[in-house]
């Protein structure tokens, strides 16, 4: 058994790195099949940027002269290789004004080999090595936007995958344009007052469990259901999603999975009846935090969390969530939740951050203050437009550095290459949600995707 599943996973990784080395381009064709079942409907778009209508700038073709000194024709072009994400409307090209100057954003793939095209922008979820613009041109940067977990394309959480890119915008604080707080609109969202405890006590008397679970995507790398199932042996959990379901949401509208990730007021009112929410991310990655974490806090419930190992760094204070991994067993965790459930004073300490001055984490406050994009904020750019400008500014600076070098090659060195790092998509190898790999039967779904990928990521399929 020892060489079984673990061996398969390691073999998959080995093949992947060989593969990246075996061609000059990225690893090809890893996507045959299996992708659809990895889409996660319930992890959908609560705070996705609204429509690009009303985004900055005026529509012009790249060749059209821009009013003023410069010609748009001389401006660097940023080409969105993932056309679905082009954050402008209407048209295929748009002039954007950024801090350092202007660029042309386009989704017209005919510009790929144009000398003015300085950066290609990719969206991680639909990045397909087979569709990559090869051969790669030396003067072009590749920029990756991938706010989601590796579940949507885990090629990118392997070194050879992420190092294909020069610049990244991911959930990681180490990425060039970090989106770690993409699901947190602001401190006001956290400070919203909690419902009175008596109300929740009343729901408990009517037979509600202390803990809520609401999840409809069950087979995920974090293997969360395996843990929750175990926990359920020691404490009541009301589970409304398709995973481990034991209760029904009260109306058909609420049962609709399209409602489940939204800020629907009726749904929020229902969820806030619970004192504790199980909040387990679909994958375990440093700084990957979603609405599963922030929404319970908004509602004044205590998240019982497993997800980003570095989540403490982002919490409003150091006593605001319960970390599953602090407990040696599901049983011990259940005992602790039961203790808090029966001790209002101890429970309320977890909501102290809602009091004036209660958010004491300066790193969180600074991160919110300094990010330049907003979450559903009409006064700030969304992060797609923010990312575009970040790349535009980077490329303008790189052009300046190249010009400076060309003017005095003796004094000014060639600009150093900038290459993305594994820390930009920092997701350790998945482990079972409960127990060890050796304890998982070989036909368990937890192991399937890895076995599948080990087949598709081979050089043989590519050549
Ligand atoms: C965390 O809380 C303890 C008290 O429980 C306090 O002494 C400590 O300073 C706090 N640390 C931070 C970083 O806020
Ligand atoms: C971009 O990254 C590649 C490696 O993926 C590297 O070879 C190249 O020099 C980098 N380009 C720039 C402009 O930094």
TrEMBL record:
Membrane topology, record value: Single-pass type II membrane protein
Signal peptide region: 1-21
GO cellular component, one term: endoplasmic reticulum membrane
Intracellular or extracellular location(s): Endoplasmic reticulum membrane
InterPro entries referenced in this protein's UniProt entry, alphabetically: Alpha-1_3-FUT_met, Glyco_tran_10_C, Glyco_tran_10_N, Glyco_trans_10, GT10-like_C_sf
GO MF, any single term: peptide-O-fucosyltransferase activity
Pfam families registered for this protein in UniProt: Glyco_tran_10_N (PF17039), Glyco_transf_10 (PF00852)
E.C. numbers: 2.4.1.-
Record keywords, A-Z: Disulfide bond, Endoplasmic reticulum, Glycoprotein, Glycosyltransferase, Membrane, Signal, Signal-anchor, Transferase, Transmembrane, Transmembrane helix
Broad class of where this protein is predominantly found: endoplasmic reticulum
Record domain Fucosyltransferase C-terminal: where: 213-356
Recorded metabolic or biological pathway in which this protein acts: Protein modification; protein glycosylation
Family to which this protein belongs: Belongs to the glycosyltransferase 10 family.
Function, in words: Protein O-fucosyltransferase that specifically catalyzes O-fucosylation of serine or threonine residues in EMI domains of target proteins, such as MMRN1, MMRN2 and EMID1. Attaches fucose through an O-glycosidic linkage. O-fucosylation of EMI domain-containing proteins may be required for facilitating protein folding and secretion.
Name assigned to this protein: GDP-fucose protein O-fucosyltransferase
Organism lineage: Eukaryota, Metazoa, Chordata, Craniata, Vertebrata
Gene: FUT11
């Amino acid at each position: 058994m020892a060489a079984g599943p673990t061996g398969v996973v390691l073999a998959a990784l080995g093949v992947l790195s060989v593969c990246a080395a075996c061609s000059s381009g990225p690893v090809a064709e890893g996507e045959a099949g299996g992708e659809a079942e990895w889409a996660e409907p319930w992890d959908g778009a609560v705070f996705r940027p609204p429509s690009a209508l009303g985004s900055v700038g005026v529509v012009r073709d790249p060749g059209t002269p821009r009013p003023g000194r410069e010609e748009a024709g001389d401006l660097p072009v940023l080409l969105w290789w993932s056309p679905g994400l082009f954050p402008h409307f209407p048209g295929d090209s748009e002039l954007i004004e950024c801090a350092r100057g202007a660029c042309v954003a386009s989704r017209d793939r005919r510009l790929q080999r144009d000398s003015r095209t300085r950066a290609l922008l990719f969206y991680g979820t639909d990045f397909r090595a087979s569709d990559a613009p090869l051969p790669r041109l030396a003067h072009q940067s590749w920029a990756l936007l991938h706010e989601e977990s590796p579940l949507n394309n885990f090629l990118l959480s392997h070194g050879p995958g992420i190092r294909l890119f020069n610049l990244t915008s991911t959930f990681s604080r180490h990425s060039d344009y970090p989106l770690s707080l993409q699901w947190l609109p602001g401190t006001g969202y956290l400070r919203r007052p909690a419902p009175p405890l008596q109300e929740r006590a009343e729901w408990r008397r009517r037979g509600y469990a202390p803990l809520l679970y609401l999840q409809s995507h069950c087979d995920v790398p974090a293997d969360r259901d395996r843990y929750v199932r175990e926990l359920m042996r020691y404490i009541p959990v009301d589970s409304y999603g398709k995973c481990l379901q034991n209760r029904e949401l009260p109306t058909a509208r609420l049962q609709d999975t399209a409602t489940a990730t939204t800020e629907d007021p009726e749904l929020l009112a229902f969820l806030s009846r619970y004192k504790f929410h199980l909040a387990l991310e679909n994958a375990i990655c440093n700084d990957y935090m979603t609405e599963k974490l922030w929404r319970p806090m908004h509602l004044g419930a205590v998240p019982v969390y497993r997800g980003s190992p570095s989540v403490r760094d982002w919490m409003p204070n150091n006593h605001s969530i319960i970390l599953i991994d602090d407990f040696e067993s599901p049983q011990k965790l259940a005992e602790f939740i039961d203790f808090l459930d029966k001790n209002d004073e101890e429970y309320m300490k977890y909501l102290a951050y809602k009091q004036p001055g209660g958010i004491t984490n300066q790193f969180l406050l600074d991160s919110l203050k300094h990010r330049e994009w907003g979450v559903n904020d009409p006064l700030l750019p969304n992060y797609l437009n923010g990312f575009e400008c970040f790349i535009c500014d980077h490329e303008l600076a790189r052009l300046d550095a190249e010009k400076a070098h060309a003017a005095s090659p003796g004094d000014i060195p060639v600009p150093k290459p900038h290459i993305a790092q594994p820390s930009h998509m920092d997701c350790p190898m998945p482990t079972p949600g409960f127990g060890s790999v050796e304890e998982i039967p070989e036909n368990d779904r937890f192991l399937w995707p890895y076995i599948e990928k080990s087949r598709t990521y081979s050089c043989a399929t590519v050549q």
